[in-house]
Design goal:
Helix content: 10-25%
CATH topology: Aminopeptidase
Bound molecules: coenzyme A
Distance between the termini: 31 Å
CATH class: Alpha Beta
CATH superfamily: Gcn5-related N-acetyltransferase (GNAT)
CATH architecture: 3-Layer(aba) Sandwich
Oligomer: single chain
Number of domains: 1
Length: about 170
């Protein structure tokens, strides 16, 4: 069982379990120090060698989010890159297999959007069945539609989704 807790960026709580012994997954801004764990999760879940320098550059420059389980183990992340001066592209959102279907992905996405709003007017992403995966791939389009995204382009294997963001604070 796990509970998901969002902590403010200036909070530094010990990773751990709550009073009932339930694992708490903390959702926070990702930092360059997280990139080795992000890369490792990519290797395990997506296969292939990720471009670590590219990821580090994006994590440093654009909103990125990390989900950490007790002990500080990274169990999910997202990072992004500029698409147009006022539009940000969500390049990668991933939750480790053993931690899926517990709202970790939802909380990562909402936290990322909160950091993006105010700095960018809209976000864009592509979900494609053609990207490599270590396991049988499931389309994530329904996941994004549920979070207010609109499908703007579909091919047999891919779907481009967008969402306008309200002005907010990053
Ligand atoms: C898509 C993903 C990030 C969702 O993370 P998560 O922590 O499982 O998400 P949540 O628990 O918040 O929501 C789970 C819901 O998403 C659905 N879902 C959509 N796409 C999914 C996918 N590819 N794999 C697993 N669940 C998926 C689940 O069925 C579940 O639906 P339900 O709430 O109706 O039962 C995660 O499944 C994942 O990392 N998938 C592989 C990588 C991927 O497809 N990333 C998106 C790239 S654009």
């Amino acid at each position: 069982m796990c509970r998901v807790t969002v902590i403010a960026d200036d909070q530094h709580l010990p990773y751990g379990r709550d009073r009932d012994g339930v694992a708490v997954v903390q959702i926070r801004r990702a930092e360059v120090a997280d990139v080795p764990q992000i890369a490792e999760l990519c290797r395990v879940e997506l296969t292939g060698e990720p471009d670590v320098d590219q990821i580090a550059d994006w994590v440093q420059r654009y909103p990125a989010v990390a989900a950490c389980a007790p002990g500080g183990t990274l169990v999910g992340f997202c990072y992004s890159n500029v698409f147009a001066p006022d539009i940000l592209e969500l390049d990668n959102l991933l939750v480790a297999r053993g931690w899926r279907d517990r709202q970790v992905g939802a909380r990562i996405l909402c936290t990322w959007e909160r950091h993006v709003a105010g700095r960018f007017k809209a976000v864009i992403l592509v979900n494609s069945m053609l990207y490599p995966s270590a396991t049988t791939k499931r389309p994530a389009v329904a996941f994004y539609l549920r979070h207010g995204y609109t499908a703007v382009l579909r091919t047999e294997a891919s779907c481009v989704l967008t969402k306008s963001l309200p002005d907010g604070q990053s």
